[in-house]
Amino acid sequence: MAYPETLYRLYGHEDEYPALDAEGAFSRLAKALAFRTVSGDDADGASFAALQDHIRASFPLIMGRSSFEVFGRSVLITLGGADPALEPIILLAHQDVVPADEAAWTHPPFSGYMGDEYIWGRGALDIKGMMFAELEAVELALLEGLEPRRGIIFAFGDDEETVSAGATRLAAVLAERGVHAAFLLDEGVASPIDGSLFGADGRQIQGLCLSQKGFLNLRLTARGKGGHSSNPFGTTSLEKLAHAIASIRDAMPEPMLTPLLRRALEELGIDADEDLLMQLARSEEGYPYVADTMAVTQIEGSAPSANVLPFDAIATINFRLLPGHGIDPFLDLIRRAAGEDVVVEVLHRTPSARQDDPGGTLYDALRQSLEHFYPGASFVPLFMCGGCDAIRYERISRQSVRILPYLVAPEDGSRIHAVDERLSKRSYLHAIRVLRHFLDSCCFS
Ligand SMILES: [Zn+2]
After folding, report:
1. CA 243 to centroid of ligand 1, rounded, Å
2. What band does 44 get if pLDDT is binned at 50, 70 and 90?
């Protein structure tokens, strides 16, 4: 069955929460997309301040009951709960977006364009859509006269797409205040995918990501001293670099099934055997879930012409390490493999996230809300291959789950960080309902 058709079959209970003001929600999100909150590219912070004004003006019931604090450009909105014995939950998102090549877009990326079916703009999917869905869900509950029993903290960083300093700062503020959250929800993967990837043919599966892979950028430098290519002695810097890259590739750890993936397969009733591991390792979609990956992303150092020996040759490699795989032992492995002829420098490192246990009241509540609104789909514990801010809050949160409650067709998913990013209105309402249902069961009851 064609993908959009299987996708549309996953929309369930669209009649719930009739008080949801769909048109208002669409225009509030569209307006949010018009602010150019490009990560690291808003010198005076005016776009972030304007977005924050828009948030304050859009959600009067939340604002009337909460504290709204700005740290640098990051935002903390604290809505207290009636029962002080209950630890709060944290709803994450980030205000920043990646840049957009404006000329290539069908509708300008910062215009807040709204069509019949879609809301267009940079950040629609990543991740102003989720930020506003979180706010809409809580505002709607307050509008219906519900009062939170458990506190809700919105934490919106301002540089998730670059260095996550905003999230680090917000987490430090919360830690200083002695805040400890029972649960944290952040962006993750969107839309169930066909289960054949995991050997569960015909089933629709989505990961509730309880960890995220580690991130490591290394720079390799091979020294060269130039000269005429008629008189090379030994290998050139480029050859040394190429040799080191090939040796690192050969030394990369074998694919493996991590505990979270094993748990997912167990819940799906699938044998986590060697055959399945090989099947995953051989598929483009499956490979990142079973392997520490490496990608040589940048290389420089060519000589100006073919008969000149090169000076220093430099490569940048991005590695993503499976949860549980430490960066230091991995670095030892890479240094040994790279050999004496290249210098290895660490440009950036973020360890893999803690692997939280699937289960518990709040995890189960989220899964039940998802299952309610995605009839027939299965939600299983998994981890994220990309990064997000959740890792910055580990100290102050018992359990962190990353998921995007959107239904996004593949052709739209490929627009994230690319041209013509857009969120379908139907999917946006769906996300608000999922979040509201979850919050009803854990905060408003
Ligand atoms: Zn994001």
Report:
1. 36
2. confident
DSSP string, 357-389: PS-SHHHHHHHHHHHHHSTTEEEEEEEESS--G
Percent of the chain with pLDDT over 70: 99
Cα dihedral 168/169/173/179 (nearest 10): -20
User: For residue 188, how far is its CA from the centre of ligand 1 (angstroms)?
Assistant: 8
Q: If DSSP codes are grouped into helix, strand and coil, which group holds residue 83?
A: coil
How confident is the prediction for the chain on average, in pLDDT? Answer: 95
Question: DSSP states of 124-180 as a string?
Answer: TTTTHHHHHHHHHHHHHHHHTT---SS-EEEEEES-TTTT-HHHHHHHHHHHHTT--
Domains, the chain, in order of start with CATH, read: 3-196+354-442 (3.40.630.10), 214-253+292-350 (3.30.70.360)
In angstroms, what is the span from residue 127 Cα to ligand 1's centroid?
5
- How many residues does the structure list for the chain? 445
User: Distance from the CA of 195 to the center of ligand 1, in angstroms?
Assistant: 25
User: How far is residue 445 CA from its own chain's centroid?
Assistant: 29
pLDDT band at 2 (very low <50, low <70, confident <90, very high): low
Q: How far is the CA of 138 from the centre of ligand 1 (A)?
A: 21
CA of 9 to the centre of ligand 1 (A): 26
What order do you get walking across the sheet with 342-350 strand by strand? Answer: 293-300, 313-321, 214-222, 342-350
132 CB-near residues (< 8 Å, 6+ apart): 25, 28, 29, 32, 58
* 153 CA from centroid of ligand 1 (Å): 18
Assigned token pair, 347: 């440009």
Say how far apart CA 238 and CA 301 lie, in whole Å.
Answer: 7
Closest CA to 215 of 287, 286, 292, 156: 292
23 CA distance to ligand 1 centroid (A)? 25
Residue 300, C-beta contacts closer than 8 angstroms, at least 6 positions apart = 313, 314, 315
Q: Calculate mean pLDDT across residues 93-113.
A: 97
Name beta bridge partners: 206.
379
